[in-house]
Amino acid sequence: MSERLLVLLRHGQSEWNLKNLFTGWRDVDLTEQGVKEAKEAGRKLKAEGITFDIAYTSALKRAQRTLDLALAEMGQTGIPIIRDQALNERDYGDLSGLNKDDARKKWGEEQVHIWRRSYDIAPPGGESLRDTLARTLPYYVQEILPNVLRGQRTVIAAHGNSLRALVMVLEKLSPEGILKREIATGVPIIYRLNADATVESIKDLAA
């Protein structure tokens, strides 16, 4: 039986991460730093001796490009890549494109903090973390997990909040716990799963 390997990779720094803007579903590219982070992720995974059979990513180019750059560093460009908006970042609605400091001036520090850090309160026109989980988790359970359990070594390149949904389940975190769990840009998290889909081991490749 081959190993049940799942790697989660948050995209490298994006142009709007750098500018301190709410990004959500806006389709922005990586910065030079983000490109470096993506390539470094690939080098770290290669150094671990990891290879993949299949990859999943979102419908947004910052995640797609991160995946492409990492796989190129690994010499793994020929594997199947499945793109789906179920893995997209949380939709920030009316906050999308706004500077976070400007948003605080408009709605107040406390309200913006609630939108960013509460589990189930959505910004106007957008999604809460719970809403993001509601689309990401079924996709993971139905489309991705069965492949992992069959021994297909899998990488998911996505976003801070869509990956939080998966981390919440894999690491059995509470709604409060997942809000405190930081997922760094461009840092692979390696999970090896048991046959019952629980986690056997976790390795975070933070520098």
From TrEMBL:
PROSITE patterns: PG_MUTASE. Keywords: Gluconeogenesis, Glycolysis, Isomerase. Transmembrane segments: none annotated. The record marks H159 as: Transition state stabilizer. Substrate binds at residues 10-17, 23-24, 62, 89-92, 100, 116-117, 160-161. It catalyses: (2R)-2-phosphoglycerate = (2R)-3-phosphoglycerate. The keyword DNA damage does not apply. SMART domains: PGAM. One of its GO terms (biological process) is glycolytic process. Catalyzes the interconversion of 2-phosphoglycerate and 3-phosphoglycerate. Belongs to the phosphoglycerate mutase family. BPG-dependent PGAM subfamily. PANTHER family: PHOSPHOGLYCERATE MUTASE. This is 2,3-bisphosphoglycerate-dependent phosphoglycerate mutase. It comes from Pseudorhodoplanes sinuspersici. The lineage of its organism: Bacteria, Pseudomonadati, Pseudomonadota, Alphaproteobacteria, Hyphomicrobiales.
